[in-house]
Amino acid sequence: MQKRLLLIILLSTFGTASAGTGPSFDRYFINKTMRLDYFHTGTHDHEIYSYDEIFQEPVWAGSKTMLLDTLNLGKYLFKVYDIKTNELIYSRGFCSLYGEWETTSEASKNIWRTFSESIRFPWPKNKVRITIGTRDKYNVFHEDWDYVIDPAFANIRKNVYFADMPVKKLINHGDPHTKVDIVILPDGYTKGEMKKFRKDAIKLLDLLFKTSPFKEKKTDFNVWAVEIPSKESGIDNPNAGKYVDNILSCSFNSFGSDRYVLTWNNKTIRKAAARAPYEHLYILFNDTKYGGGGIYNLYSTCTSDNRWSGYVFVHEFGHSFGGLGDEYYTSSVAYDGFYETGVEPWDPNVTALLNPDNVKWKDMMEPDTPVPTPWDKEAYDNKSNEYRKERRKLFQSGVSEAELNKQEDDYFEWVHAHLRKQKYWGKVGVFEGSGYVSKGFYRPYLDCQMFTKGNIGFDPVCAQAIVKVINMYNQ
Hints:
This protein is an alpha+beta fold. The protein has ten helices and 15 strands. It has three domains: 25-149, CATH 2.60.40.3250; 167-320, Collagenase (Catalytic Domain) (3-Layer(aba) Sandwich); 356-457, no CATH class. The protein has helices spanning 2-14, 25-28, 97-101, 105-108, 194-208, 266-273, 309-320, 377-397, 401-420, 460-473; strands at residues 29-42, 47-57, 76-82, 88-94, 113-124, 128-135, 141-149, 167-171, 180-187, 221-226, 280-285, 292-295, 299-303, 431-434, 437-443. Helix 5 (194-208) packs across helix 7. 42% of the residues are buried.
């Protein structure tokens, strides 16, 4: 059932891509990239934007026809207006480190923090006004900051950074303007480990492009690697007292979650990535510990040498590229109420079911599928709680990694078998338990790459969302 649904999605979506949105590229832009760096400061209840720097990057890799964002994804939306005509000439939705941090307990304690952030767009020919808007509880964007830029401004940086670092084409399918361009950056790989970095990247990319819908759309992608070395191998692991000199500053225990790997080093990332034409960023870090992260239209991170690296690589790209939400709800996370009760999430695969008669993926459901869709959630929840209690005991007793792996494998074997026994297995429905919450939030399918560990693949709703993103970049 899942394969048949996915085939229908791919065939129908491939033929419905827009011919382009927005004004003429040549009227308003030249073939370079403007990068505006700014600081995002605040607490849970206060928010401030402030200008930092502007950079000129060598080439614009994005579409020249899909200039306006049609996806309605992301917590934030930036817009570029031509000053003379007041016409909207570019827009993109995105998420940010700040946006995640403000949902943590640290932010709710009224502790102030600042994050460096960037937005990128084609180089304007004339003065432009930039606005950044945030969604309210009704999913309407309200502009919080605006800034006027004159491209003739003398203080725009035009440096070429990391000019001596090799840039490799890992996958090349043609003109960057009509392809999705990804740049992969290494972190925690020394100069002598660059061969390993390329091997690791190619192995994980191979798995990504064996997973639908990326499999069917592989020729719409280019992938680049910028080989910037670290002085030491590995990345920081604060809970183990491990700190290393890694070029991109990736670290475990981000926002207090042991397996969550992020970096605050926005400047270095952007300087390195600018060596290649890119729209999307992936950071591959050299470590054996399980972990990674993904933030929509910011970057993904993935561990290189864990037995779950393949799953993590695909899962995190689902976040950063497809704008997909996490569908699991029994694992611990860093957030305090990531999704607000009574507010419909913007994520295409998570719903609060505020209007049961108009589910966001209703067009993919069979008419007789009940809403909510029943499944044996109680048995799953009980098994999950037992598994985590037993795992803590095993870990504290100092058993071998092989024994921990055996316990984990047995658990997920049970989970996958349990889900496949359900009456509505293979059907798009509205299944309770999603978005880190057991009650009140729902997912569209019993199992998915965004729900359980393993190379399960994306459910039909997630696959459709990914194809829509691909189609916005391949025009």
